[in-house]
Give the backbone structure.
Amino acid sequence: MLITRRIEFDAGHRIPHHKSQCRHLHGHRYALEITLFGEVITTEGVSEQGMVMDYGDVKRIAMEQLINAWDHAFLVYRGDTVVREFLESLPGHKTVVLDSVPTAENLAAAAFRILDKAYVDVFGNRLRLERVRIYETPNNWADAVRGQI
Ligand SMILES: Nc1nc2c(c(=O)[nH]1)N=C([C@H](O)[C@H](O)COP(=O)(O)OP(=O)(O)OP(=O)(O)O)CN2
Ligand SMILES: [Zn+2]
């Protein structure tokens, strides 16, 4: 069984060498969709009976491990020196430095790697992260799928 939880957040970014508009500093209302695989829990009397994982716990873990850090941050490529140094000059600015250019593809892969460690099977139902989908705009998205990143 697959279940999916959607969480939206805001962040700034730029694609430094982009041929068009995306080289400018700008932001998006990103949407992250977290898809988990697992068997439905059948343990009698537990809160999670009938679920793969409680949607509330899916969200809580994503917030703690990823979204609280990325929401209202500027996501900057480590190699984008001019912008990174500018952001570092702003006292207390919320900046996330990434090892790759913050395209939808790279953000989805980065989110997958972070969240993969966070979703742990505690009910013996083979729970695992299966896919992270990130929408950069309502029309544009990227999928990081287990075994394909
Ligand atoms: N494969 C990718 N292509 C592009 C990415 C990306 O992450 N992966 N990112 C961008 C830009 O960041 C940009 O913000 C998206 O701009 P645009 O293509 O203009 O998207 P819109 O939804 O605004 O375009 P519409 O044509 O209005 O739908 C660019 N490319
Ligand atoms: Zn953009």
Summary: Residues 28 and 135 are 9 Å apart (CA to CA). Helices lie at 55-70, 81-88, 104-116.
